């Protein structure tokens, strides 16, 4: 898709993916190889689950290639360490998802909607019903 759009139109393309299903990392890499102009990532300590793929993983993957970002992995680790501490302060606001959730490949609930859904279930004291709700989504 990226290469076809770039062939037909003079536009800059930027790819935004959530890491919920475990497919975002692959999508970003393939899009970069196809000529996308930019991608969204997040520092590792704030990445994955409902967020974006980890910046450091993509930087390491692209190092030494024609797509090398030039970013310093050691500086990124310092940033990640800082945000690991910040994240602890907001633990109460984190969703249920730990790691990837392949059910979303079937339910196709976008990351932003999934976090809202969890929040609404929590407000109704029904956070334990997430699995049942996802099962109802075609």
UniProtKB/TrEMBL annotation:
Descriptive protein name: Oxaloacetate decarboxylase
Alphabetical list of PANTHER family matching this protein: PYRUVATE CARBOXYLASE (PTHR43778), PYRUVATE CARBOXYLASE, MITOCHONDRIAL (PTHR43778:SF2)
SUPFAM superfamilies: Aldolase, post-HMGL domain-like
A Gene Ontology BP annotation from the UniProt entry: gluconeogenesis
Gene Ontology MF terms in the entry: pyruvate carboxylase activity
Domain of life: Bacteria
Organism: Salmonella typhimurium
A Pfam short name: HMGL-like
